[in-house]
Structures are given as C-alpha cells and as structure tokens.
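Subgroup meeting minutes
Present: P.N., E.W., G.H.
Scribe: E.W.

1. P.N. recapped why we're keeping a running log of single-chain structure predictions: easier to compare across weeks, and new members can see raw inputs and outputs side by side.
2. G.H. added today's entry (314 aa).
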Amino acid sequence: MTKEPLTLNDDDPKVMAARAAEKELFDYYHLQADDHYIMLPDDGIRVRVSVIGSGEPLVIVPGNTGDVFPLASLLAELKGRRVIAINRPGGGLSEGIDHTTVDIRKFAVKTLGTVLAAFNLKNVDVVAHSMGAHWSLWLAMDSPQSVRSLTLLGNPGNVMQGRPPLLLRLISKPPLNKLFLKLLLPSDKSKALNFLKSIGHTAQTLEQLPKALADCYYYFRLLPHYGVSFTSLMENAAPKIDAEQLKQVKQPVLFLLGDKDNFASIETGRKIANAILNCEFYAIAGAGHLPWLESPEECGRLIKSFLGKGKHLP
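Output recorded in log:
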C-alpha cells in the first residue's frame, strides 16, 4: 500500500517531539508513566504500553489509531489502580501497521491477548474507547476468560447503527483518502484541536483543554507511519458487531455515551446497551465522542463505582 516507514527511530526529531508533548501532558495531570515494549511475534510489530500508578490492574484500550494521550484527564480520575494502557499498533509511539494486510478481528484479539499475557493478566477489567471498544468487545467474545468487566466509552466502533461522521467515512475511500486526511490534519498547533468539533465537542470545551493536549495531537500526527496506519484502519473498517453478536458478551458492561456524540445517538446507545446481557448505560450530558473531555470527574466516578461492584463478582 505504501513505502512509508512503519518503524520508529527514537532519535527522530518527530518522535522526540511527540514524546516530549506527551510527557508535558501527563505532567499536567500528575501522571507518571513507565514505558514497556511488547513484540507481536507473528507480525514483528513493537507495541508500547504505558503503565501508570499502582494497585489492581486496569487495562485501557484507546480509540482512533490507538494513542493513549487523549485519555490523560480520565486517567487522572482513576488513581488507585495500576493502569496498563495499550497504545494500539499505529498510535501512541507503537510501531505502525497497514491494517489492510491483516484479518482485523484476529489481529485485534491477538494484539490485546499478547499484551495481557506479557503482563500475566487474567480476568482483568478493561476500559476502552471507540475503535478500542470494538476491539475489546471482540476480546470479550473470543477470549471471555481474559475479561472480567468491560467499560465502553463513546460510540464503540462499528456496532449496530453507529457510524463515523462524513469526513472520516471519506478517509476510508481510496485513492482520495490521503487528500481527505489532509483536510482533517491540523495545519499548525493552534488548530490541532479543531477536529474535535466535528465529533461533538464544543468550542468552549476546546478552550478549557490544556495546550499540551493540542501539542500531542499535532506532533503525533507528524509521525512517519501515521498516514498509512490511520487511512488503512479506516479503509479496513472493523466488521459490524450486530445485536445478535452482542448477546455473546457475558461480562458486566458499563457504557458511557455523550449526548453530543455524533457517531451514535442516545437512542442507538440504548439499543446497544439493551442488546448486552448485563449492561449499565449512562448518557453524559453535553459530551462529545470523548465524553471525559467535558466530564472527567463524572466519567471517573461512574467507572470507579462500576469497578467497585466488580469486586463482588465470582
């Protein structure tokens, strides 16, 4: 598909800039992350895992291309757990991937399972956003012993009637997808958060976010493999999970959906929740596709309450 490099060089100024921006953002939220690198042996891809805090393990699976940094304000609300945040291949200083070259479901389950095995995690709580939530639903279905509970944030990928906004759908259509990607990418750091308006977030929300978050979005999108990783992910869109498949999810599920999330309406969110055997659903007022950006405290409180109930599960 492309000759763009999919590996990363730690001495590359673009890598150094992305890493520095992430550190500044984590410092803003008083988060100390330790890097671990896990090799996917069948694919030769190195996955970066950010480990934060101490306590009972809590696995984080980000959305989009897999960057952990957008979740920083939520992670600050989840202290008291050992957060094991998986930067999915193609994002978060993990190595890149042409997603059109793999069976996406098998790759997703294998990637998450490999990381869980590397940390000796069995029957663990998982918090996941958007495409990461889609991957985690597959993990819960295909490797049910691995997942104790599952928290879904935002519209959980290609599930039932949910779908991305027009520009993201256009990025899934080659050969013009690279052109449409340029329309999405910020031309300078001052505009790096503007795309969040297209996924349900307000200008008022953007004004309240730290500058370091904008820097992260800007610099991570300059990484050499970002273009191929993102466009191929959109092109090889995850097969839809329908209501019948959702019945296979036996674990307790918490589903938080912003009422301004334009990937899925609250009505669709309730239908998704109703299709899952054991699901608590909450609409987050005034929130977009990343509901914790507007309401980190509320999202954190709901997640901690849900996880607290999990301690009584067999």
